[in-house]
Amino acid sequence: MKTIIIATKNEGKVAEFRALFAERGFQIRSLNDIDEDISIIEDASTFAGNACKKAETIVGYTGNVVVADDSGLEVEALDGKPGVYSARYAGDEKNDQANNQKLLRELENVSDEDRKARFVCALAVAFPDRETEVVIGTCEGKIAQEPKGDHGFGYDPVFYLEDKHKTMAQLTSEEKNEISHRANALKKLEEEWKEWF
Ligand SMILES: O=c1[nH]c(=O)c2ncn([C@@H]3O[C@H](COP(=O)(O)OP(=O)(O)OP(=O)(O)O)[C@@H](O)[C@H]3O)c2[nH]1
Ligand SMILES: [Mg+2]
Hints:
The protein is α/β, with parallel strands linked by helices. Helix content is 29%, strand content 24%. The ligand O=c1[nH]c(=O)c2ncn([C@@H]3O[C@H](COP(=O)(O)OP(=O)(O)OP(=O)(O)O)[C@@H](O)[C@H]3O)c2[nH]1 binds at residues 8-10, 13, 42, 69-73, 86-87, 99, 119, 152-156, 159, 168, 180, 182. Ligand CZF binds next to strand 3.
């Protein structure tokens, strides 16, 4: 089985990538399996910029093909925030629950129809010997009035999918992996890189 390195420390992402890549005959390793203390400063202004930075940094350590994900939530009524700051929205100490509470507070007086949001995932693939590729996947939804469900991670409990009448955290991992921004980005990568899959 071919192995791919995923340049992430986020175990929620790792679990999703493990399932998504297993369907395609790959096994994955993440930064949590690598014996180096690597910290990458995510200072780009776009998801794509941060994803490339993560992937290219890790290629330097491993010499393998590396996939990195930079992702987050864009809320229309907040002019696209939290965006690239999604992980650190409520403070530098990453805390999903505090992020969700802050988001619900910011949207306290915003009506249902104005709560449109999208998840965005930039996937960068860096190679030891050719230029980095980037694709973007999205998933459209709305911010719920209160958190519901306990699957997934991050903003999943407050991300409401209108056609499913459920939050992302109320879906099983299989259901999320059919429609998520991460799954959509990976489908694009697969279309553009048939020979690689
Ligand atoms: O509800 C969610 N469902 C998702 O599917 C999802 N994908 C991303 N996010 C949010 O966006 C941040 C990413 O920031 P991010 O790309 O910098 O990742 P991270 O810092 O957690 O790990 P790393 O990959 O950088 O090591 C995460 O922490 C989450 O808050 C999600 N929330
Ligand atoms: Mg990060």
